[in-house]
Amino acid sequence: MALGFGMKMELQQFLDALASSPEKIEFETTMAVIEDNYDFTPAAFTNGNTQN
Predict the structure, then answer these.
(1) Which of 21, 28, 35, 47 could cysteine-pair with 5, CB 3.0–4.6 Å?
(2) C-alpha to C-alpha distance for 44 and 16, rounded to whole angstroms
(3) Taking CA 19 as the corner, what is the angle to CA 13 and CA 37, rounded to the nearest 5 degrees?
(4) Residues 25, 30, 35, CA angle at the centre, nearest 5°?
(5) What is the DSSP-derived secondary structure letter of residue 46?
(6) CA pair distance 32, 25, nearest whole angstrom
(7) Out of the domains of life, which is the source (predicted)?
C-alpha cells in the first residue's frame, strides 16, 4: 500500500514512514508534508555574479 496524497500525514508520521518504508511514500505526500510544515520567507541573495 502506498502512502498517498489522500492521507494527511503529520511530520513525525512522515519521518517514521520515511525511515521504515520510503518506497511506499508518494511524491504528492512528500510535497503536502513540506507545504504543511515549511514557512517560506523570500530573501534576496547573491551567489557569485548571480543575484535574485
Answers:
(1) 28
(2) 34
(3) 40
(4) 160
(5) E
(6) 11
(7) Bacteria
Q: What are 15-45's pLDDT values in tens digits?
A: 999 999 999 999 999 999 999 999 999 999 9
C-alpha–C-alpha distance, residues 21 and 42, integer Å = 34
**Across the strands, what pairs with 50?**
47
Is the CB of residue 33 less than 8 Å from the CB of residue 14?
yes
Q: Does 2 have pLDDT greater than 80?
A: no
Q: Confidence class of residue 8 from pLDDT cuts 50, 70 and 90?
A: low
Per domain, the residue ranges of the chain are 11-51
Residue 3 has pLDDT above 90, yes or no: no
The set of cell numbers assigned to 34 is: 513540506
